[in-house]
Design goal:
100 residues, mainly alpha, 4 helices
Amino acid sequence: MVIAIIMLLISGLASGVFNYVFLTYIDPEFVDSMKDGMTKFMESNNIPDDQIAKGTAKLDEMRKGFGSSVLTGVTNGLVSGLVLGLIVSAFTKRNASEFE
C-alpha cells in the first residue's frame, strides 16, 4: 500500500507541474476556449445563467498558480494512491496459517 501511495504521490507532483506549464506557457488560451465551449453547451440546453456562472467560475481556479497547481496534483495523487493501495492490498492480502 505504501508503494502505491508513493508512486501516485510522485505522479501527482509531475501532473501538477505539467498542468502549470501547459496552462501558463504551452496553451494559455485553453481555459478560455473550454469556458466558451461549456457556455455554448449550457446555453443550448437552457441552463439558467446563474448555473452557467457557477460552472465557469470553477474553470478560473485552474489558473491560480504554481503552488496551487502542484498542491492540487499532490492531493489528487495522495487520495487516488490511498484508494488504489487499499484496493490492491485487499486483493493481495495473505492469510496467516492457523498453526503458526
